[in-house]
Amino acid sequence: MIFDALVGVKTCSKYVIEKPLSEFQKNKARHDGVETYCRECNNARLREKYAKDPQKKCKKTKQYHLEHPEWSKETQKKWHQNNKERRYEKVKERLATDPEFLKYRRDLVAKKERERRAQKANTEVTKVTKEDYNNILLEFNNQCWICKVKLTKVVWDHVQPLAKGGSHSVKNLRPACNVRKNATWPFTDDMKEVIAIEVRNLTDLKEVMP
């Protein structure tokens, strides 16, 4: 029996092995609503097909992303969120081995800094003295306000980002050990805890430094 809805199993056509329906991908076009092959066999088939002509698959995938921009944006966002450490390692490797990529990143940082200065010029700016910065560090016991990590290098973070209408003032500045918060606003306690856990799990805390 190929399909038995009562017991929720189906026989994979690849090796004629009976498996639970949960191990088959859905396919509304088929009478039973699932694929002929189980997930394992179907994934193996797709990998084999990709290996024969990877460029063809990449071109097709790129075209699908271009035709479905909202889906593409959400899919890439989820991937980046679930693979942060993997991304950081790839970036570090490229910075060390790819001069063009290093120049691109430096140009990008310079552009962001220009935008930041422009935002600061258009928002409430209060003169922050060296003494003010020292007092803020003392207030937070020389620790990152997000991760509670002892600071060896300070990244001055605007709690409410300049890009989101925050001011450059003592009341809006906090000492941080990393830039993972970026321009996130509102910045909730849950978001703060996620970043803190990520940093605490790093084997080398220097990795969080910009």
Polypeptide structure, described:
By secondary structure, this protein is mainly alpha-helical. The protein folds into 2 domains: 3-78, no CATH class; 124-210, Orthogonal Bundle (DNA Binding (I), subunit A), CATH 1.10.30. Helix content is 48%, strand content 9%. The protein has helices spanning 39-52, 54-67, 69-82, 84-97, 99-121, 130-139, 189-200, and strands at residues 3-4, 9-12, 17-20, 155-158, 173-176. The strands form 2 sheets. Strands 1-2-3 form a 3-stranded antiparallel beta sheet, with no helix packed on it. Helix 1 (39-52) packs across helix 2, helix 2 (54-67) crosses helix 3 and helix 4 (84-97) packs across helix 5. The longest helix is centred in the middle third of the chain and has 23 residues, at 99-121. The radius of gyration is 25 Å and the shape is elongated. Mean pLDDT is 81; it is low at 1-6 and 205-210.
Keywords:
210 residues, elongated, 2 domains, 48% helix, mainly alpha, disordered C terminus, disordered N terminus, DNA Binding (I), subunit A, two-stranded antiparallel sheet, 3-stranded antiparallel sheet
Q: Strands of the biggest beta sheet: in what spatial order?
A: 1-2-3
User: What structural category arises from helix and sheet content?
Assistant: mainly alpha
Coarse shape: elongated
Summarize the biggest pleated sheet. Answer: 3 strands, antiparallel
Number of DSSP E strands: 5
**Secondary-structure element sequence?**
EEEHHHHHHEEH
